[in-house]
Design brief:
This is SGNH/GDSL hydrolase family protein. Keywords: Hydrolase, Signal. Pfam families: Lipase_GDSL_2. The structure is a single chain. With 229 residues, the protein is α/β, with parallel strands linked by helices. It has a single domain, classed as Rossmann fold, CATH 3.40.50. The protein has six helices and six strands, in the order αββαβαβαβαβα. Helix 4 links the parallel strand 4 and strand 5. The longest helix is centred in the first third of the chain and has 23 residues. 41% of the residues are buried.
């Protein structure tokens, strides 16, 4: 082999290794409460483990679980995501599997993650405001006391393409106060789907895959602004 050809071969091999390494850095490992557990990427044990607590919007209702916005965050940041979110659940609202967020909190404690991310839920609309606030405070206190070294992140509730109802504003405010009281972080994403067509599925409750991406991008920007990523 000529010196020139040998040099070109070496350059191609080195370039492929660099590209492969960059691609690998963008991958994450995901476990879903729905039972979807893709094969973990090599070296997953060294990844940051993040647990998601939430409702059907966070579990990607009507979509492949990999399209849910917490899973998109895992892909952006190379996290190992364990998504405990389930349809119908809220701080007070009982989910389809008979649990509320407090039950997901208890499960998260057993997993001992580096971070927990959760969001307020429209499932709690119509519930007693005092009961919602009490459940929020209890959830945050449990996470803080039993996972003292875990980063706690709360995200404002997601609504559809219309103006959100006033009770959701109250849920937003109460959640912000509850997480900040234990030294956690609050990510206010506003209404990223407002007046944007094609963001909601036919039920006008659950985001489309495109809507999930918009939410993920908004949360990622909020994390970036607080230097959490």
């Amino acid at each position: 082999m000529s010196r020139l050809r040998f040099a070109l071969v070496c350059l191609c091999v080195a370039g492929a290794a660099v590209v492969g390494g960059l691609v690998a850095c963008g991958l994450g490992s995901v476990t879903s409460a729905k039972g979807a557990t893709p094969s973990p990427t090599e070296g997953a044990s060294s990844m940051r483990t993040v647990v998601a607590i939430g409702d059907s919007i966070m579990d990607g209702h009507g979509l492949d679980p990999s399209q849910a916005w917490p899973v998109q965050l895992a892909g952006y940041n190379g996290w190992r995501m364990i998504n405990l979110a389930t349809d119908g659940a809220g701080f007070v609202s009982v989910g389809d599997n008979g649990t509320i967020f407090a039950d997901q909190v208890d499960e998260a404690v057993q997993l001992d993650p580096q971070s927990v991310i959760l969001a307020g839920s429209s499932n709690d609309l119509g519930e007693s405001e005092s009961a919602i606030e009490k459940s929020m405070v209890s959830a945050m206190d449990t996470l803080h006391s039993k996972l003292p070294h875990t980063t706690i992140i709360a995200v404002s509730p997601v609504w559809n393409e219309k103006q959100q109802p006033s009770q959701l504003d109250l849920i937003d405010d109460d959640l912000a106060s509850a997480v900040k009281a234990v030294g956690g972080h609050y990510i206010e994403i506003g209404q990223p789907l407002l007046n944007k067509p094609g963001m909601m599925q036919g039920d006008d409750v659950h985001p489309t895959a495109a809507g999930q991406l918009v939410i993920a991008a908004a949360v990622q920007e909020g994390l970036r602004k607080q230097h959490l990523v």
